[in-house]
Amino acid sequence: MAAHHGSDATRRTSEIDRYLGRPGQAIGYKLGERAWLQGRDAARRRLGPGFDLRAWHMEALTQGSLGLADLADDLASL
């Protein structure tokens, strides 16, 4: 990892601990990010010039916890 990561030893150790200690965390984060971005892009396409990123984001944050199955659809409808 030291040959390819380019960060200091403390950061590398932290990343190794994170990936080995919580193996589902990184993939869960990425899947959530993709659902969030898909929902935002769908809302932007639906609303066109009326899309307000700040207002959409504030409304999205009020949705609370959602499963991945519902997240993109719920965010797209905002």
Characterize the structure shown.
With 78 residues, this protein is an all-alpha fold. It has one domain (8-76). Helix content is 77%, strand content 0%. It has five helices and no strands. It has helices at 2-5, 9-21, 23-47, 53-61, 68-76. 6% of the residues are buried.
Please name the defining characteristics of this protein.
78 residues; mainly alpha; 0% strand
Mind sketching the topology for me?
Layout: H1 2-5, H2 9-21, H3 23-47, H4 53-61, H5 68-76
Brief overview, please?
The protein is mainly alpha-helical and 78 residues long.
Rg over C-alpha atoms, rounded to the nearest angstrom:
17 Å
Order of helices and strands: HHHHH
- The total domain count is 1
| Class by alpha and beta content | mainly alpha
Mean pLDDT: 91
Distance between the termini: 42 Å
Shape: elongated
Strand proportion, as a percent range, falls in: under 5%
Number of strands: 0
Low-confidence stretches: none
